[in-house]
Each structure stands twice: as C-alpha cells, then as structure tokens.
Amino acid sequence: MKPIRHMLWLTVAGALTACGAPPPGGELSAQRLEQVTQSVARGENQVSVEQLAQWIIESRKDFMLIDIRSADAFAAGHIKGAQNLPLTDLVTPAKLGSLPKDRKVILYSTGSEHAAAASALLRLAGCDALLVKGGYDAWSRHVLNPDIPSVAEIGEAASIAKKRAVACYFVGGQGAEAPVYAPKPAPFVPPVTTVQPKQPRRAHREGC
C-alpha cells in the first residue's frame, strides 16, 4: 500500500491544478483532505457489485466505468461497458484533468486496494469517484457465477430469480428460468404396526 500511496501523493498537486481545484498546502486543501477522509470512512466512496450490475442493466449514463488493471487482465475478462485505463496511466495530471466532472467515475481493480487509493486521489481532485467493493473478484463471484441453489426455499424464490436473471444478462445460459418452489420432503416415519401380545401357554396338567 505504501508505494501506491507515495505515488498518489506525488501527483496530488498537479492533479488538483488540472481539475481546477486549489493546490495542496493551504487551509482549504487540509479541509478538503478531511472531507475526503471522512467520506471514505463512511463508505460513501464504494458501490457494491450488485448495485453496479443493476445500473448497467438500467443503461444509466451518469457514470464512467474504468478498469485500472493491466491490459492483459482486462482482455481476459472485464465488466461490461468498462474502459481499460491502468493505474499508472490514470494517476497523471493530464489524465485526471480529462475525467468527467458531470458524472460519477467508478473504478475497479482485482480487489479493492488499488481502486480505493485511486478513488481517494480522484476525490481530492474534485471528481465524484467510487470504487467497486471487492473489485473484479467480487464481480466474478457474485454476478457472473453466483451461488444459486437448484431449488428455492420458502421466501427465497424472488431473490434467487433476480440472481439468475442478472447472471443470464451478463454471461447467458446460467439458469434463465425462475426457480420453482418445492418444499422439503417430510421425513420418513415408518408405520406403526400393532402386535398382539402372545397369550401365555397354559401348563399341561397330568391326567386332564
């Protein structure tokens, strides 16, 4: 984390100037840093993979999605609609200054760490930046390959149907049919058979 943080802070001054914000070093920059820190602490810079999937399905136009992984990782698989902009290319004053100010900028990496650092810098630079919580790993696990039972329990049918529909939208062929409720079979109880007690044998008496 330290190398990333060092690299980010080296570019803060130029990035803030490029984005039209005051350079760091004064009272205002310290106040801005406190605002960003508090916002991050409250988790306001995060979006879940489920929420992002819903935004993509709704074809929302109020955000820009950026994959900050390497070009090879991006080619192997990425979130629909994402642009590939590796972290080393993103954290330059020129590139930061070209990011939209009228839309959210959503970043994701393999996990959360690098995207968290980059989103913090973008927020310092005046951009409305969010990170995808869990990154592409979480996207693959919860959106592309969700754990979907073949049979729904009582009250689970709606949520399972939604998971199936979302997975089908992004990858296809992952159970587009809605789950069918089937109650658990009742445990087998063997029938009770009444057995008549044996009558005691009468003792044989001599001479009878």
Structure description:
Helix 1 packs parallel to helix 7. The protein has 9 helices and 5 strands. Helix 7 links the parallel strand 4 and strand 5. It has 2 domains: 141 residues, 3-Layer(aba) Sandwich (Oxidized Rhodanese, domain 1), CATH 3.40.250.10; 37 residues, no CATH class. It has a 5-stranded parallel sheet. The chain is an alpha/beta fold and 208 residues long.
Q: What is the CATH third-level topology name of the largest domain?
A: Oxidized Rhodanese, domain 1
As residue ranges, the low-confidence spans are 1-28, 173-185, 203-208
How many individual β-strands? 5
CATH class of the largest domain: Alpha Beta
- SSE string, helices as H and strands as E: HHEHEHEHHEHEHH
* CATH level-two architecture of the largest domain: 3-Layer(aba) Sandwich
Tell me the number of helical segments per DSSP (H or I, 4 or more residues long).
Answer: 9
Distance between the termini: 106 Å
Q: What portion of residues belong to β-strands?
A: 5-15%
For the largest sheet, list the strands in their spatial order: 1-5-4-2-3
Relative helix content: 40-55%
Choose one word for the global shape. elongated
CATH H-tier superfamily of the largest domain: Rhodanese-like domain
Rg calculated over all Cα atoms: 30 Å
What is the mean pLDDT? 74
Pairing-aware structural class of the strands and helices?
alpha/beta
Largest β-sheet summary:
5 strands, parallel
Give the number of domains: 2
